[in-house]
Amino acid sequence: MDKVKVIIGKEWAEVFKNRMVFFIVAFLPLFLTALPLLMLVFFNSAGEELSEFNTGSDEMLQTFGDLCLGLSEMECLQLYTLSLFLFMFMILPVAIPVTIAAYSIVGEKSTHSLEPLLATPITTTELLLGKALAAMIPAVLATWISYFIFMLGTRFLVSDDVINRLLDPMWLLAVFVVGPLLALLAVCFGLMISSRATDPRVAEQLSVLIVLPLIMLVIGQSMGLILINRQMVLFIAIFVAILDVILVILTVRLFQRETILTSWK
Known about the structure:
Number of strands: 0
Distance between the termini: 31 Å
Helix content: over 70%
Number of helices: 14
């Protein structure tokens, strides 16, 4: 484990010099935390004006099932909006580590710091584990801290009925279980791209593609095409866990240190 700790420390010292990586890790969680809270402040301050418009609570109930059952029209609007942002906390553990992982190998290659590392007695498993943890730890911690701040701020801006819906086990499963599983998925995807790419910018751009399926789910939820419920979150958790096992095996097999040492120019 000492070798893994050294790799983690080395990764953080190297990766966070990249402005794009630092921007994503620092700014994205703050943005996704502040934006819904600002929207709640706006909803509360413009409550009377909003109530003059017909926002179609009956249509909301028909579209979103039990989501708004027993809530006022304003509470339904608040809950629906916050539910969309809660889903964003499943995107954070994907967007943050995939950028770090995509840079970790090809970035070191471009700075000529990878060859000396690969020439040491460290095993491929130890090397990839250190790089994976270096990418996952900031992402998971940033997601959990942002979620805590989000819920703490929301507690003072909505009713007890709304906050109780937000504390549904579905969202706890999504943030604290599915989130780390998605982070591992993103890291494996990023490492595979990084081990094959020859340019850091290309690797970072390709790795971002893994976020697209989650963005499509958010769009589908916002348009009422799909409803994120407990069954879907549980299915996502099982599916991603299986996919993680497959990608971990592929990541180790695709990382050919001899090829990297001899073929990359």
